Each structure stands twice: as C-alpha cells, then as structure tokens.
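Most newcomers find our protein records easier to grasp once they have seen one. Each record describes a single protein and holds just a pair of labelled lines. A learned vocabulary of local backbone shapes supplies the integers on the structure line. Nothing more is needed to start thinking about how sequence determines fold. The record below serves as our worked example for the rest of this section.
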Amino acid sequence: MGHTEFNAGVLPRGCGPDAGRGRDADAWILDCWKLGEIVTKTGQSAQIVDVEGLNFMNCNTIVTRKFGVCGVYLKRSEKLKPNSKHRNTHTKKIGTNKMKKIFLPILTASIALLTSTSANAVNISVGNLIIERVGNGTTTLSSAAADIAVLEYTTSGTAVQTITFPNSGASQSTDSGTATSNGYLNSYNGFVSVTGYNAATGTASVAGSNTKLTSILDNSGAVVSRVTYPTGGPSATPASPFSGNNIRSSIATGSSTFYATGTASGTPATGGAWYYDGARFTQVSSTATGQPTNLRNVEIYNGQLFSSSAATTGYGIFSIGTGLPTSAGSTATLAINTGSGASPYGFVMFDANKDGNLDTAFIADDRTVAGGGLEKWTFNGSAWVNSYSLLFDAAAGSLSATAATGFAGIRGLTGSYNDATGAFTLFATTTETSNNRIVSVVDAGTTPTTYTALASAGSNYAFRGVDIMTVPEPSSAALLGFGMAALVAVRALRRGRGDS
C-alpha cells in the first residue's frame, strides 16, 4: 500500500472532528471507520485482515453484535509503512510511543488451516463460522454423554480448527449424543458460550442430570470461565437451573456472565431463562401461569433478550423482560408467533433499514413437513408476517415449500446482512441424526430456490449450534485473526418441547 499519512485537520471524507471529548488538540476520532476498513485522508480505503493493539474509543455508535462501527483514536501525522514480512505487516503508533501493528491484507488468503485442541487453539477469526459438534467419530451417538468440540470454518466451508473439550477429569465437558435440542452455542462481543455437562463421556442419560455447566471461550479459543450449576435439585438452596431436564443454549455477556435457557422437571419449575452474574444464578423469566418455562435457543438482538420455544405456552420467538434483565420474574412476550405445532430452534434478526428497530427475522424449524425448514419473517409496522418456509432437498441441493422424501429441516441458524447488496446470507445445521451438514442460503430479495452444502459432520458426529464469530468489545484484548468474511458490511444486531 506504500505510504499513507494522516494529519490533524485533514480528515477522511465523511468523518468529524473529536469535539468536546476532553482529549488534546492533536487528537481526533475517525468516527466513520468500520472494523475491517482503514480510510485514508483522500477517502480511499484499504481493507484490514488483522488488527492488533488498537485503542478503540468513542464506541457509542458500535453495533455490539456483528461487525459494527467504532471510532479509532489516532495522533496526528501517523504513518503506515510496509516492511518485508510476507503478510505486508505495517507498524503504527496509536496514541502512545508504544509500537502497534496493523496487518494489511493479502486478499486471497488470510487463514491458516489447522486442527488444534483447547490447549493450543489459535485465535478465532472474526466473521468465521463456529459450530458445536458432538461425538468422537467412533462411538454411535446415544443418550449417553458424548465428546463436544467447537469447530471453526470459513463461510465458504473450509475447516480452520477444532477446539476440543476434555471428556473426563476436572475440566470435563460433554453433552448428550442424541438430545437434539441441546448444544446451541452463541458468540457475543467476542465471547463464545458453550453449554454441557460436568460428566465423563459415556455417562448414561446425561441430559436429565443435575451436572450442568457453561464454558465461556474468548476470541483466542481459550476457556476463560467454566461455571458448574447447583446440583441439589429444584427445592434446594440454591435451586438447580433446568433440574432433571435439558440445558439447551447460552449466550455470554462477558467473560464470566451469561444467560442460559432450557426446561426442567419437578417443582418448583426451574426451566426458562436464567442469568449468571459471575457469582450466583437468577431465574430471570417468570414462572407464572401461562409463562414459558420450556425454552430453546437464546439470543440477544438490538439489546434485547430473546428465546425460541415450542411449548403449549407459545410457539415462536419470545422477548424476555426489557433489554437484558438481571432480576427474577421478567415477563416473556410472544414476539413472533409461528403457530401451533411449529418447532423453532435457532433464529437471527436484523434491522435491515437501519431505523433502530428489528424488521427481518429468519427462524430454523426442524419439521420436515410443509411449514418447516428455513422461515423468513418481516415486520410490517404492527405485526410479524411469514414470507416463506423452505425445506432442504438433500439430494438436489434445492429448496422447496412442499415436503418430499429425503427432505431435511434445520436447527442451528445464524446469518449476516450486506448493506451494499441488500442480501442476507444464512448458515444452518440440518436435522440428520448423524453426519448432518452445514448449509448456506442467500436471500437477495426474492425467495431462494437453492442452497450450498458447506461441510458434513462425519459418521458418528453431529453438528448442533452455529454462529458467526463476533468482534470483541473495545476493552477486550487485541483483535486478531480478522477473517475475510468480516469485511462485508453487516447489519445483524446480533444475536419447546421437552426434547430428549
């Protein structure tokens, strides 16, 4: 890229000065910078693959789920000069005399392909897919505890790394091999939250045991928190969340805080949604008559807590409380009613028109009859309306609103939205019990008719949840491993039955 110089008073096109923020006169903010883009003083841009050590500030405009906008604090007359490293590494001062690095791209390849364990995982690249997988490839999946792993893939389906969890010992984390409602991980603000059980591989009927746990990984792939749940049952003090039944999904709000969802057996009811504040659990969803205590996938979009459910108290997507509740008894409201008999799991929501309100949603339904599969919903100003429901033809790679032999539904779901093209790209896990698939669908404004199979789990493995790795909060450690998929302008604001 050669030599680029930034001067105070000569701001990139569309950027405003750092007015009234209490910093010295030589400093200013590039409010128009997007993560994955560096804007020169002429308004031209070059994309960034990896960013290390940037002092991100002025983040009131950041979209805190998926690849938002964040100001970058720069001193004047800062320069980017290439050196001889094969990655075109450039060195830059950011606000202090300490040297920082910005890696400019070799556009054709930015990710090394490798396999690793949690002990030697490499940084998870922002914009890549993360998938939870159960099984060891040898033992037939059953209700017994099975190995779990987090797999990283590019959005084109290239395997990057496998982060495995110990299957025995003090750090063990496993999950039921056949509890298809379990195992729906999430990425939020650069953390990955994974549910499981503090039980060794082979433990019988593990889904209903009170040995539940949540692990939180940071963007380096390391486990930064491992939280085991109270084990005494529903009447104990403290009570066991999801006592005697399934824990299904969790989403971390920090390195040691998270929400989790599931269902329970016994009384009092300990299913629904729980919050862990780093020290104690609180059942944030109400257990009043008519309120859902049987929840599936949990998500956060536009600063609001949501969960899917397929129970008689409501089929569809519920909002829980206001914003991100932390106190007990928050009312759940059915936001998207998918109708009696529906079976929603993963879902992703967008503010496509950028007015601050969610207006488009995609829902994964695991039914293989008409109405199941990939559902699209749009908000018309007063209600959410279904646009289509499409099943996956395993043989032909096509999508169909009508059912046929060999068609599959989906459970895990995530996606992104491209502002420039207006296209949604969805990524899902299919419903085969073993050797299921990661698939992608592009909605470019018309009902899609085909999908792309990206990868298969393999014999005696199954994919469960899928998400897109998110940007760490500005206060987090350096942003490393910035994948090419993160260079797309994305507007996603983030992110049942007693299944056994």
Remarks:
- The longest strand covers residues 384-393.
